[in-house]
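Methods — Computational structure assignment.
A single polypeptide chain was analysed. Its primary sequence is given first, followed by the predicted tertiary structure written as C-alpha cells.
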Amino acid sequence: MASTSWASVPGVSTRCPLPAALNTRTCGVFLTVAPNQLEAVYTGQGQHSNDCGAAHGDAPVPDDLVVYYFEVEVLNHGARGTIGIGFSGSKFNMTRQPGCVARKEGVTWM
C-alpha cells in the first residue's frame, strides 16, 4: 500500500508522503502484520522486556509539521494489558516499547 499524498491540504507538508500503512520490512519478530498492512497481531508471550511487538509506518512523519495526528484501535489488550504506542526513530530497537528507553521518543500505557 502506497503512502498518501496530502499535497492538496492547506498547511500540510508537501515534500514527502505521510504514513499510510505499517512497514513490514522493519517490524519486530513478535509481530505479525496482516496483508492489508493496517493491522498487526502480537505473537510473543510477554515474559521479558524484549518480548514485544513493534512496527514503523511505511513513511516517516514529516518533521516540518506543527501537529501530527494518528489513531490506533486496540482490539485485544492481552493478559497483562501492557501496550506501548508512540513514535521512534528509524534506528529504534524493535524489541523494545516506545518510551521504555531513556532519551527515546514514545509513550507507554499500562
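Note: The chain has one domain: 17-59+66-110.
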